[in-house]
Specification:
- With about 375 residues, the protein is an alpha/beta fold.
- It has 3 domains: about 140 residues, HUPs (Rossmann fold); about 50 residues, Roll (SH3 type barrels), CATH 2.30.30.280; about 100 residues, Translation factors (Elongation Factor Tu (Ef-tu), domain 3), CATH 2.40.30.10.
- Helix 3 packs antiparallel against helix 4 and helix 3 packs across helix 8.
- The longest helix is centred in the N-terminal third of the chain and has 20 residues.
- It is globular.
- It starts with a strand and ends in a 5-residue tail after the last strand.
- The relative contact order is 0.13.
């Protein structure tokens, strides 16, 4: 009998996944990763569910590692002009990283999560497939290592959300669990400015710097339109690409944030048409299936998502480039990739991820570092 450890938050998806695995004949244990202080409550709820189901429950305290590898990354990204996607990083580092290692150490063959996506294994390796149309979450897994996905099970992809809730409600009287709302926000952030202030205070203490030194990025600076200062912003970390409201600017047309420039403490703004770009650059490529990735490029059937959602954009060209200079945000010097799409895309946001697809298969992805307005080749 194959042994599976499932990551449990006490929510409806992971609870349903647990029930399905048990019905499918797996030996199942639940586990909760403690990533922040508030997650002890979720762990207690998950343990209560496991007790009802008659299975083991593990609790893994990962707060220190999560602080360094996700929370500090999240804050540092804003200070360096990016809009981060911590869920993508957390999936690679923790859910399909440290959590998987602990499960294997304890003798389990697989881990499982409540993600809506699918996997297929064959002689050419592992294939990460889109989930059902309404709940596909493959975008958030584009950065997970292929070696990790070989030890993963996704039990709930074939189920509609209503079926998932019904299943949980019908088993052992788990009515309360079946009615829980889905989580919508980043799990560790209630107010992202408070998170940034928390990070700067910690860094100031570590480096013996004043809090003021670390908060210089929140000082007043210029809004810049076509090279000209047209107003004052209240700290560039408060603005992200595509933002329209909250700037207090008066102009003949609506203005949007086009980007931030930390080195000059400026927020660049422009009209809606300036938000569109045909290309982007991304770094740290993660390829999930080498054959599928190569075939997608060869047949010109590679598509990409630049944000979570259904829309995949047809890629006209993709090319590996040489990094012109090292950047400060812990980038791997050497290579990056440049992508051009068949159409212009609105509000491509540096710091987010591009997920690459071959049909319904997610073949990998990487972190967006810049936009490219036109093909310069």
């Amino acid at each position: 009998m194959k042994k599976v450890m499932i990551g449990m938050s006490g929510g409806v998806d992971s609870t349903a996944a647990t029930i399905i695995l048990m019905k499918d004949g797996y030996e199942v244990a639940g586990a909760t990763m403690i990533l922040t202080d508030s997650m002890f409550v979720a762990s207690s709820e998950a343990k209560a569910i496991c007790d009802k189901l008659g299975i083991k429950h593990y609790e893994f305290d990962m707060r220190e590692a999560f602080q360094t590898r996700v929370r500090e990354y999240f804050a540092r990204s804003y200070y360096e002009g990016f809009t981060p996607n911590p869920c993508v990083v957390c999936n690679r580092e923790f859910k399909f990283g440290d959590f998987l290692k602990k499960a294997i150490e304890l003798g389990y063959d697989y881990i499982a999560t409540g993600h809506y996506c699918n996997l297929r294994n064959d002689e050419k390796g592992v294939h990460l497939l889109c989930g059902n149309d309404k709940k596909d979450q493959s975008y958030f897994l584009c950065n997970v290592k292929k070696e990790s996905l070989e030890h993963v099970v996704f039990p709930i992809n074939a189920y509609e959300k209503s079926e998932v809730r019904s299943l949980v409600g019908s088993v052992l009287g788990l009515e309360k669990e079946s009615k829980k709302k889905d989580s919508q926000d980043i799990c560790f952030v209630k107010d992202y400015m408070d998170e940034l202030k928390r990070y700067t205070a910690n860094e100031a203490e570590k480096e013996a710097l004043t809090y003021r030194d670390w908060c210089k990025e929140q000082e007043v600076g210029d809004f810049v339109l076509e090279g000209n200062a047209i107003g004052k912003h209240q700290g560039y970390v408060k603005y992200t690409v595509g933002q329209r409201h909250g700037m207090g600017l008066s102009y003949s047309e609506p203005l949007y944030v086009l980007g931030t420039q930390p080195e000059s403490n400026q927020v660049v703004v422009g009209t809606s048409d300036k938000l569109f770009a045909r290309g982007l650059q991304f770094e740290r490529i993660n390829v999930i299936n080498d054959d599928a990735f190569a075939q997608a490029i060869e047949t010109k059937q590679l598509t990409g998502k630049v944000r979570f959602g259904k829309k995949k954009y047809k890629i006209e060209s993709i090319e590996k480039q040489v990094q012109k200079q090292e950047q400060e945000l812990e980038l791997v010097p050497g290579e990056y990739w440049q992508v051009f799409f068949e159409e212009e895309i609105r509000a491509i946001t540096p710091g987010q991820y591009i997920a690459l697809y071959y049909g319904d298969e997610c073949v990998g992805g990487g972190r967006i570092t810049n936009t490219v307005k036109e093909d310069l080749s």
